[in-house]
Design goal:
The complex is a heterodimer of chains A (413) and B (110). Chain A has 413 residues and is of the alpha+beta class. In chain A, strands 1-4-5-6-2-3 form a six-stranded antiparallel beta sheet, with helices on both faces. Chain A is elongated. The N and C termini of chain A lie far apart (96 Å). Chain B is α/β, with parallel strands linked by helices. Chain B has a single domain, classed as STAS domain (Transcription Regulator spoIIAA). In chain B, a hairpin with a 4-residue loop joins strand 1 and strand 2. Chain B is globular. Classes of the chains: A alpha+beta (413), B alpha/beta (110).
Chain lengths: 413, 110
């Protein structure tokens, strides 16, 4: 086995070289329009069989693992004769290691064989093995140069097809995420802030959210509401969010007792949640006629009541989040709003950080609400988010806020 | 985030440190589930955990749920005030056994 050193083309190429150039150009044109990896490879191999008078041309792709070379594809007459490709041929590794074309002359019994490395952008990708028919002799220098050029073009085409496949995979994922985000948005109520005594805001940190809120009017005139926060971020949190939100919307229309809804949700979520996933959640009902709230809290950040005289009361959880234990035993608490405002929020709000410093925290949130207090509540919440959009603040988690304004009924009668 | 593990065949002490968040959760999960797989009594040292988010808590919950499935015990000890506040706010102090230090954790087991 010896390395073949292709001839340097002469300044005025003869007809044979011109023929090779034309063949190479045609060969490359096909690659330019081919997007499929196996079609690219087969086209490459067929070109080599035809132009280099080969009995068979085989491609072995290199994997940088104990398996080493893996037979990928072959073209030529010998396939029909049942020839078995041999990925353990030691010359494959030598060809790739030396990054050069190797060739062996034929003997009376053994056909001439040539090897060309596939090195797209210098990265070892595989080796092409070309076997000539007995009697055809080894590749001459011109054929060897053509073999090398064809292998280089094939290597680039393979790299392009692989890159295109990766890009298409990524764009599929991006499209799927956009659909998921759209479906999630439709799971949230669409009432605009200021149009009812209750409204919510949701801002995912990624494309999809692990938070949700919901509210709807019950037959008795009360408004059922909930806000949930699924542990984690991204798609797994979003899927559990979709489940919890759908279950709430279904159960919330037949069970009017907040603690009972959360206990039922807990059983459903615990049965199917995996990887320690859990949901912190507040559920409740609001009676716009009396200003009375009923709420239950499973492991969620305590909601805040801002009384009409600007005092704040918090309502901590009285049981762990949904999905942690098989059974929960929660209580429903009554809150007299008396014209006040009730804020339920995910920890994405209180975990906002300014620079490298402290988190906003509940105290920081209260200060911000008070600083904006002359504005109507709906405007105030938008202004609060605008404030947190300013330079210096960084968001660490999905952010959701649900607000009930007990003064809305009086102001809009 | 760093973690290390020591203990006898049945008792495993897992030391967690640093920020236990979404980025480090896969590694923490592996260590905790490995300890649950090999031990009957898992004690998680939280002394050097500076921050824990819901992804980190999910790792602890999964480890606890797996431990209960095989009738093993899992307890936390030396939880710093910030992480303890997070656990208490979510009422997870009613789910996990939480001890001030390793000695108390061992004594509580009797």
């Amino acid at each position: 086995m010896h390395a073949i050193h292709p001839q340097t083309p002469t300044a005025a190429p003869d007809r044979d070289h011109l023929g090779d150039a034309e063949r190479l150009a045609l060969y490359c044109q096909n690659f330019a329009i081919e997007r499929d990896l196996s079609a690219t490879l087969n086209a490459a191999l067929e070109g080599m069989v035809r132009n280099l008078h080969a009995e068979i041309v085989e491609v072995f792709l290199w994997r940088n693992d104990p398996e080493g070379f893996i037979f990928e594809s072959a073209r030529g007459r010998s396939i029909a004769r049942g020839r078995q490709p041999d990925p353990r041929d030691p010359y494959l590794a030598r060809c790739l290691g030396e990054k050069t074309i190797l060739g062996s002359p034929q003997t009376d019994m053994i056909a001439a064989v040539a090897y060309a490395p596939l090195l797209p952008l210098g990265r070892p990708c595989g080796v092409v093995r070309l076997v000539r028919p007995l009697g055809q002799g080894a590749l001459d220098s011109r054929e060897s140069a053509l073999f090398g050029a064809m292998a280089s073009a094939a290597a680039l085409a393979i790299a392009n097809a692989q890159l295109l496949a990766t890009v298409e995979d990524q764009s599929d994922t991006t499209r799927d995420l956009a659909f998921a985000a759209e479906i999630q948005r439709h799971l949230l109520p669409s009432a605009a802030a200021g149009e009812s005594p209750i409204f919510g805001l949701n801002r995912p940190i990624r494309q999809v959210s692990g938070d949700f809120f919901d509210f709807f009017t019950l037959p008795n005139g009360k408004i059922a509401f909930a806000l949930g926060d699924v542990a984690g971020k991204g798609m797994n949190a979003a899927l559990l969010m979709a489940k919890a939100a759908s279950l709430y919307r279904c159960l919330g229309k037949t069970i009017f007792h907040p603690a009972e809804i959360l206990e039922r949700l807990n059983r459903e979520i615990h049965e199917t949640a995996s990887r320690g996933m859990f949901v912190t959640m507040v559920a409740g009902t609001y009676d716009p006629g009396s200003g009375r709230l009923e709420i239950a809290n499973a492991g969620h950040e305590p909601p805040l009541l801002r009384t009409i005289d600007q005092r704040y009361e918090s309502y901590p959880a009285d049981g762990p989040p949904l999905g942690v234990l098989p059974e929960l035993n929660l209580s429903t608490r009554e809150v007299e709003m008396s014209g006040g405002e009730f804020f339920i929020f995910s920890d994405g709000l209180t975990e906002f950080r300014y620079g490298q410093g402290e988190q906003l925290g509940v105290d920081g949130l209260i200060q911000m609400i008070e600083a904006l207090s002359p504005m109507p509540l709906a405007v105030r919440m938008e202004a609060l988010l605008c404030e947190l959009d300013k330079e210096g603040w960084s968001m660490r988690d999905d952010l959701t806020v649900l607000v009930i304004d007990d003064s809305w009924v009086q102001n809009n009668e | 985030m760093t973690e290390s593990e020591n203990g006898t065949a049945s008792r495993r002490v897992v030391h967690l440190a640093g920020e236990i968040d979404l980025e480090h959760a896969p590694q923490i999960r592996k260590v905790l589930l490995g300890a649950v797989d090999q031990g009957r009594w898992i004690l998680v040292d939280m002394a050097e955990v500076s921050y824990i988010d819901s992804s980190g808590i999910a790792c602890l919950i999964e480890a606890l749920q797996e431990a209960r499935k095989k009738d093993a015990d899992l307890a936390l000890f030396a939880v710093n005030p910030q992480a303890l506040r997070v656990l208490e706010l979510a009422r997870l102090d009613t789910v996990f056994a939480i001890h001030p230090d390793l000695t108390s954790a061992v004594q509580a087991k009797g």
